[in-house]
Structure formats: C-alpha cells, structure tokens
Amino acid sequence: MTAFSKIHNKFIWPIVEHRNGILTKKHLDYLILSEKWSHDKIKQFQLERIKVIVRHAFENCSFYKNHFNKIKLTPDDINSFKDFNKIPPVTREDLNMHLDDMIAKNINEKERHFSTTGGSTGLATQFARDNACLGIKNASEYRFNGWAGWEPGEKILYYWPALADFSEKSARFKMIRSKYYSRSLSLYAGSLNEKILSEHLSAYKKFSPDLVRAFPSALQRFAEYINEKKMKLHSPKAVICVGEPLIQSQRELFSKVFGCDVFNCYVSRECGNIACECSAHSGLHVAEEMIYLEIENQGKGEFGEILLTDLWNMGMPFIRYRIQDAARWINKTCSCGKEHRLLGVDAARISDFLISPVDGSYVSGSTLTHYLLAEGPKIGRAKLVQDAPAHLRVIMTGSETSNKEGIEHIRLRLNVIFKGSMNVDFEFVDSIPLLPSGKYSFVERKF
User: Fold this and answer.
1) What does pTM read for this prediction?
2) In the chain, is it the N or the C terminus that has fewer CB atoms within a 10 Å radius of its CB?
3) What is the number of other CB atoms lying within 10 angstroms of the CB of residue 225?
C-alpha cells in the first residue's frame, strides 16, 4: 500500500463518509469477513434477508401487496426457499407500468434516489434505491476490485461508453472528489476515432491507473490502437471487464497490451455488482450476501433465465426480478476456498443467445463470437440477428469483396453449429451502431 493510500484510508475516507453518511468501509470489512462463511451460513443469511425484504415490500409497497394477494400469500408464509419460489417473478414491464406503486412509502423522498437501466433491451427503465443501501453496494464493488489486487485509495480508470454516466452537474466537486477520494478517471468511450484514442492514450499515461474497469468492446478498440502504436504502457494491477460478456480473445489482448491479469465481472444497473471472478478464474462468484440469484428453467444448453432478489434495496424492492439475462451454474468449489456459488463466465442478456432450430437449445453469443471471429480470418465488426427460428442475418462492415474469406468461414461454421438447418443471409454496412447503453451487441434475437 502506498503512502497516499494509507493517508486516504486513515483520514480522507473517514472524513468523506462522515460528511455524506455513506458508510462503505464498515460494510467492506463485513463483506471481507463473510467470504469465510460456509455454504449453509450463506443460505441461512439469505433466507433471513429474504424474509425481511418480503415483509417490508408487503407492508410498504402497494404493488407487492397486490402481487402477493393474488396468490393468497403473506410474509408469514415465507419460511423456506420453496415458499419464496411461489412468488411470481417481477418483470421490467412491471417496473414501467407500476413504478410509483413499487416504491416503499415509508422511506422519505430525501432518503432515496432514482436511476435508470442502460437501455440494452431497447428501453431505459427508471427505478429507485434508498440512500442507506449505497454503502454496502459501494463496498461490494470495492470487494470485487480487491479480488483483482486493488486497495482503497489506489487509482481507477473507467473506460466507459455509457453517455448517461457523464454529467456536467457539480463538475468542480466531482473533480476534487475524484482526485483525492475516489481517485478515479472516467474516459468516455462511446465514440472512438483516431483523435479521441490519441487523447485517451495521453490521459492513460498521465494518470497511470492501478486498476482499469471497462466495457470490453470499447477497451478492445483502445487496446488495438495501443498495440498498433507498439506502445509500452504502465501496467495496472488488473483489468476488470463489466457490462458485456468478455470473450477469450479480448482477455488475451488485454493481458498482452496492459501486462496484467484480466477479470470478468457481472454488473447490473438495477442490482449493482452481482458476480465476479477471483484470481483462480474458475467462474464468477455470486455476491450472495447482496443478491439471491436463481436460474429459471435451466436445462437446454445448460442456460436458464436469471431471477434476482436484491437483499438490501428497501427503497424499491426487487423480488424475483426477471432481469432478462441468462447464465448457467458451475457446480464445483473454487480453489480459492470461497463457498459462494459460481456462475459460468458466458452469462449474457437473454437476447444474446440464438436458439437452434434443430433442438431448441440456446447458443451463447460469447461462444459464437469466439468460434466465428477469434478463430477465423480478420474481418471488420459483425453482428448476428436471428429474426425467425430458422433465419439468421449476418451484418458485416465493409463489402462482400473485402470479406470474401470471412464470409466463407462464417458460413461453414454456422452450418456446423446449426447442422445445416439455419438459412443465412449476409448484409454489408458502413458501421454497426452501439446500443443506447453504449454496449456493443454481437448477437440479437428478435423473437
């Protein structure tokens, strides 16, 4: 730990926490201790928190009171996970239609705040949190950063394509806070060209981050630019990728360019930091003190749809929330010793899976990315759109002539994956736009 980090942790951090009332350090200490919990203790803790959040929602949110009354269920009936599973999942449509009724009426307006989802599904959705949960949610991110070797007080670079996160409000205070407290630098990566990449490179060299947190598609372009320039940079302790599935070719590129270990982390706007790899890279450990995560209908292709219950947000409870992501469990114990359950590293949005017309199995977009692009001839940006059960559009930048070898490679691979049952058409465009959230989607399913 550097001298500044020691000063930060002993003086600056406590002063800032006293000022804003967000007690991150206390919660971080608690989460680090909880990593030694047994599986049984984790489950016991989750059930107790579920009982608390269910009773709170029933008594203070008219939406949930009606939701439970429809199935004649009360908080007193929830005594096991089996009882809890009787509650019908909540959807994003529920959030859009019943926002006011989902907000807890016993929490003062000044004690909660609003945020929005990133819009990856085509629609940005508003939701609320109580301010009191921010401390432990910040601590959850700090803990994941710690698994990558970072310590509080060290510098973090956010390479970020989400424009909504760049606000001019309180710019001066944010600058001071970033320099002396959070010690962070955020670079907008939603629009990249030669000039912007050059500016980002200069900013990176001047800042010399200890940790990089980034969307992998944006960081890939930056890493390719650095690689093309044959630049030797300061190496951070780690790169943590969030917002999109991380594919193996990206992991290898980041490791080469930045000279450090690369971690995959699953984060959502609604519920925060959900799961992250440790240094063993055996899968993503679920933050089970923060989230109760279920995988619904897991079977075909081993993937199922994720349901999330936020164990701490009292401002607007998320109970069995269908977040529109899919994942699979890894049924083994990590060599690091933590007994938190492991998610497959190819967790992704439910729309980021194609469905095979042969047997209805789910085919992961991140797997397809590696199989079609990383192992084939170099092409421009591409996107697969399944608009019917047996029809796939392959959209590529450039022309048919310039992509001739790539077209043949992709056609042959898709024929193997879908056993000749998928009709494939190729389209050529000048560019493929990012999603409203700033993410890049390689796969899209429209049914």
Assistant:
1) 0.81
2) C
3) 18
